[in-house]
Design a protein that fits this description.
metal ion binding, single chain, Sn-glycerol-1-phosphate dehydrogenase, six-stranded parallel beta sheet
Length: 461
Amino acid sequence: MKFASLPISQLIQTPFACDCGRTHLADIRQVCIGQGVTSRIETFLAAQPTKGRMLEKALDELLIVCDPNTRKVFGDTLTQRLREEGWKVRMHCFTQSQPHATMALAQELMEDITSDTGLLLAVGSGTMNDLSRYASYKKGLPYYIIATAPSMDGFASTVSPLVVDDLKQTFEAHCADCILGDTDLLATCPDRMLAAGLGDVLGKVWSIHDWEMSHQLLGEYYCPEIAALMNQAVARCKGAVPGLQKRDSKALEQLMEALVLAGIAMAFAGNSRPASSGEHHIAHCLEMQSIFAGEYGELHGINVGLGTLVMGSLYRNFLACTPDKDKAIAHAKAFDWKDYQARMEALYQKGAPAVLELEQKEQRHDPHATIRRIESYFAHREEINQGIAQAVEQLSGCGELMKSLDGYVDFGPYPHSKKLWKAILRDAKEIRSRYTGLQLMDDLGLLEELVEKTVEEFWRG
């Protein structure tokens, strides 16, 4: 069934029997994006189930979740508004001005949820959403996300990425019952957060490409309709950039909708495949380096945006190469576990045991598995290279779009050395068991050579 052109209101809570052979469903009660939509919260609360019954003012406490910044932006206003409407309201405001979504903070939030709590209202963006999603899921409660910036694609996600032992891990959770994107509120966010949202959307070009490539080479499940949904969202956001610069309400709505559509696409696919690939692996690895250094680091979407441009460089340079099948097979057979272990320990530090355990489980670098992938590439080489060229063209000019919103287009703003950048681009793929362009280049024995070229292109030391 064709659904790529449908509005969000028709994509949620509706099963779609798709030509891909699966039935897709995004189980989200409400998505409300536009000017002044936070004024409708009371309407949604009046029809909100909790604990097997309807939410009631006399019985249920509303717990507002925020940090010091989002409290000032809307947390205090929301608290006052709901109290005036007769609701019992309490606030959990994290003390950190820029908190990371860690398991420790998720536990802190869960400990503050009482038997009176009926609903969590997360005010913020990525971190508040991830923490509230996980804590509410564990406590069996619904939650809303009231976006203060269109800066990331997890608004409609059903999983929570949390940092445990310095490694970002993904945990089962549930989707928000209500997603509110008030463009009046979104318009107050800094340019950098708009760049982050745009970067997260642009990254879907590689997510979709790599997903289809994995389908072609390895037989992974793939849905062209979900891919079309994401590609249309990317196209709309590219066209919205001039409006974003002016804080135009319609442009903000388009960006927010695209970010929500990414979550719907993930729900339809049953995993994050339509929204995350090599560009996200690079971003996750960058975020871990900041955690190791005891710093907040850059916004996730800023890192994804840069990762998207980096992947474009790697792929362009790949198309200029002539892969040699015999050399690729020899490279696969030369895999050295001790060398691999040392690299993982150097790059991932406390997170290295989990990365090594993943490789031992998946055996992605087993020579027999690698050679099978090499054989498949050479059997499908023409269509794979054609797909890469199309994706590269799709992202043409996106560096300027990112730059116009204060996004990053080179390595200059980061404190990392050339050596660390090379390690990140070479081994970021090890953080997830997912076939991406980084894995293709590594399988063919070309990754280190391509990384050298791309690091020189992006280096501004």
